[in-house]
Amino acid sequence: MSTTTLEGFQVLDEKSLREYLKKTPSLSSKLGNDDDLDNLMIKEVGDGNLNFVYIIISPSAGSIVVKQAIPYVRCIGESWPMTKERSYFEATALKRQHGLSPKHVPEVYHFDRAMSVIGMRYIEPPHIILRKGLIAGVEYPLLAEHMAEFMANTLFYTSLLYLTTTEHKSAVAEFCANVEMCRLTEQVVFSDPYKISEFNHWTTPYLDTDAEAVRNDKILKLEVAELKSKFCEKAQALIHGDLHTGSVMVTRESTQVIDPEFAFYGPMGFDVGAFIGNLFLAYFSQDGHADHGNDRKTYKAWIVDTIVDTWNLFHKKFTNLWDIHKEGPGEAYLHEIYNDVELRELVKQKYMSDLFHDSLGFAAAKMIRRIVGVAHVEDLESITDLGKRADCERRALDFAKMLMKKRRTFNNITDVISAAQ
Amino acid sequence: MSTTTLEGFQVLDEKSLREYLKKTPSLSSKLGNDDDLDNLMIKEVGDGNLNFVYIIISPSAGSIVVKQAIPYVRCIGESWPMTKERSYFEATALKRQHGLSPKHVPEVYHFDRAMSVIGMRYIEPPHIILRKGLIAGVEYPLLAEHMAEFMANTLFYTSLLYLTTTEHKSAVAEFCANVEMCRLTEQVVFSDPYKISEFNHWTTPYLDTDAEAVRNDKILKLEVAELKSKFCEKAQALIHGDLHTGSVMVTRESTQVIDPEFAFYGPMGFDVGAFIGNLFLAYFSQDGHADHGNDRKTYKAWIVDTIVDTWNLFHKKFTNLWDIHKEGPGEAYLHEIYNDVELRELVKQKYMSDLFHDSLGFAAAKMIRRIVGVAHVEDLESITDLGKRADCERRALDFAKMLMKKRRTFNNITDVISAAQ
Q1: Whether pLDDT at A77 is above 90
Q2: Could A166 and B172 be called an inter-chain contact, meaning their C-beta atoms sit closer than 8 Å?
Q3: Are B148 and B108 contained in the same domain?
Q4: Strand-pair partners of B388
Q5: Count of A–B CB contacts within 8 Å?
Q6: Among A198, A231, A239, A337, which would you mutate to test the B interface (most chain B Cβ atoms within 10 Å of its Cβ)?
Q7: What is the ipTM of this complex?
């Protein structure tokens, strides 16, 4: 059976998309009158490997984005199947996260489970993917503040610091079904980089011995096993699951988090670590982008400040939410038990310290996999001088290996920065 | 609406049970011919607070037990509702555990979800509840071996050491629905003992200051919060969830684990700790049962040996299963990554060390709650001299508090025993 007709599913093209929009009031109502609907400007912009993404602009009124998941990896074809049900979890997570952090998550207008179609706000220019801004050397003065707010809100409110056990277990169960996406992460983040895999690649021959050293590093493999167990077993909060700098769109004033198709109940540190780890990748790539006109030193300092601010503001906002809701419904720390000021400080310190160490561990895992695993990052890949790129990658890799092994010895983010410098 | 007619549910009495058996082939087939079915000996023996339990013996052929959960707490009445769906999770867990440890879990013959009825093997005399044997001072030479086998098999084979992520997440999701039982545990084990609660009681006035000290012990409350988080968030394996010495039936030759109605995907250490913690409660209660004829010193030595053997044999059997299945489907430690002998030893040491510390922490939590929480144990309650009982309880409580706080400093079970002595 062709996957394109499975259970009412059909891969949209521009023509069928136009028909789809006309018969879908929740979308057509955003796009003006019948005349507008006959003259929509439609552009396919899916630059990822998985989905189709259409920008739809009305001649006189409004715009939307339509994203369709297809049941295989787009850039490979039907030979690499991947559940289109990821679209359901993406839509569910987007709605939940928009509710919790409305300024930093686009609104969903429409979801069609059979068609795996999400209709949502078009994040208009001059928004660009953060990773591209980081490569271009653009500073985003509000990025740390915004990302801290997104992470604090989405993680706190979906955890047992706020939810009852009944709410939490029900949500955990629902997102257990996003298992195919979890399996993909387990493979590409926690497994493939540590073994011979046909999917792995690296800047060869420069990093051949570095990649081999990763595969033979017993302590590193001991540590990554612990992180993998946390990823698989610790249902702490609804995490985005893929919070790298390619899942964030920015202007100087605005920050929008997109693409939570890997969302599930996992360890909070996986989100915080993904973002910080990718900022570190941007940091280590800067020397490869330096030229006579711009040595990127100022920009490296800005990235460093952004990493520091991201953690510190996240810490502040997260514990602030905890304080606000200390007498709330959350099951984890009942107010009748944790009602003493000194005890509450102790408890918060311990919780945030554990979360910090988790975040550093996951940050390291995300960095390593981007250098010796299957999917690399444009920050480094766009350095055309391979020797120069390999130097950047080796520094990033050595830092990440140290970070994974020594993460529990760091008490604050500035010490981590010092180690990176 | 009366709960007794809800959705085809009806509380059985002896008369309706006889009718039920006749029309249920999977049960009647165990009980002989029509003449036998007309002359069954039926005895209600539910000594717990929750369920009805009937022993049914045929005049000439066979016997069974029928257990019915009712939608409220039996000893209180309909004013304290409790989901009868626990019966579904009990039956599901019994079947899974029987499959994994057939010698130590009774076979389920029949399950009726609407009626919350489980028909299962009658665990015949001279089997008695282990707790009663421990109070009577009876030695069970195979107990440690059998419990180690039950725990190793049921925990290993339901964890990511053996299961794929797909199997694991599917099972986690299913048991998330046993949330009411999880909530009950969270309340009575991890919350009530650490705050003022109408349900708490203790041997008053002797332990009044001890109970108050528990409520005011900041470090203890910090530690119990971590244990509670693990209980709520760490979906490590299908745990029994209530593995105290009242959930085990024994003879000198046989050990049968029953009543897994609290089963869900949680931390393995909760089961190991429940069993060990309850053996420690039996140990500390012995001085209260000593008399001129029997100072119980020999018996205390046997309990101590049983605790040591339980952990050490569990460790041996569990890691042995891991070795056997090291190239199996388990997602946690893929053989291609953990293929080095030295690395495999490192990984096992770390895993078992973490599990040991979890087990000690949960053992301590289970001891504390039985002394200052709502539900006490007969080991201590049966000591009629209140002063003597309070002495035993205080020693157990002090040991448990120390154990919870210092659990990470213990490297082996014999050091824990030394601390108890």
Answers
A1: no
A2: no
A3: no
A4: none
A5: 119
A6: A337
A7: 0.95
Q: How far is B225 from chain A (nearest CA, A)?
A: 7
Per the CB < 8 Å rule, is B338 touching A196? no
Residues of B in contact with A82 (CB under 8 A): none
For residues B112 and B218, membership in a common domain is answered with no
Nearest CA in chain A to B192: A337
Average pLDDT for chain B: 95
The CA–CA distances, whole Å, from B50 to A173, B45, B53, B124, B262 equal 27, 12, 10, 22, 12
Structural domain contains residue A272:
yes
Q: How large is the angle between the packed helices B268-289 and B413-420, nearest 10 degrees? A: 30
Of B121, B142, B172, which residue constitutes the final position of a domain? Answer: B121
Contact at CB, A218 and B173, closer than 8 angstroms: no
0.90 exceeded by the pTM?
yes
Same domain, residue pair A248 and A343: yes
Judge: A337–B191 Cβ closer than 8 Å, yes or no. Answer: yes
Nearest CB neighbour to B342, from listed A176, A218, A337: A218
Please spell the DSSP secondary structure of B35-100, one letter per residue. HHHHT-EEEE---SSSEEEEEEE-SSS-EEEEEEE-SEETTTEEEEE--TTHHHHHHHHHHHHHHH
Q: Is residue B336 part of a domain?
A: yes
Same domain, A107 and A207: no
Q: Which domain holds residue B100?
A: 14-121
- Tell me, yes or no, whether B116 and B132 share the same domain: no
**E-strand stretches of B293-344:** none
Q: Which residues of A369-401 are buried (b: 16+ CB within 10 A; e: fewer)?
A: bbbbbbebbbbbeebeeeebbbbbbbebbebbb
Q: Do A343 and B218 touch (CB under 8 A)?
A: yes
Cβ of B235 and A236 within 8 Å?
no
Regarding whether A193 and A53 lie in a shared domain, the answer is no
Number of folded domains that form chain A: 2
Mean pLDDT by 10 residues, chain B (421 residues): 62 95 96 94 84 94 94 78 92 98 98 97 97 98 98 98 98 97 96 96 98 98 98 98 98 98 98 98 97 94 98 98 97 97 97 98 98 96 97 98 98 97 92
Rounded Cα gap, residues B395 and A21, in angstroms: 73
**Separation of alpha carbons A396 and A279, rounded Å:** 11
pLDDT for position B5 = 52
Q: What is the CATH number of the domain that holds A50?
A: 3.30.200.20
Closest chain B residue by Cα to residue A196: B336
Residue B40 sits in the same domain as residue B185: no
Residue A24 is assigned to a structural domain of this protein: yes
Domain assignment present for A8 = no
Q: What CATH number does residue B294 fall under?
A: 3.90.1200.10
Chain A hits for B226, Cβ within 8 Å: 350
> Are B350 and A234 inside 8 Å of each other by CB?
no
B172/A172 touch (CB, cutoff 8 Å), yes or no: yes
State whether B147 and B27 are in the same domain.
no
Tell me which of A86, A121, A156 is where a domain ends.
A121
Of B176, B228, B334, the CB nearest to A169: B176
Q: Which residues of B touch A193 (CB under 8 A)?
A: none
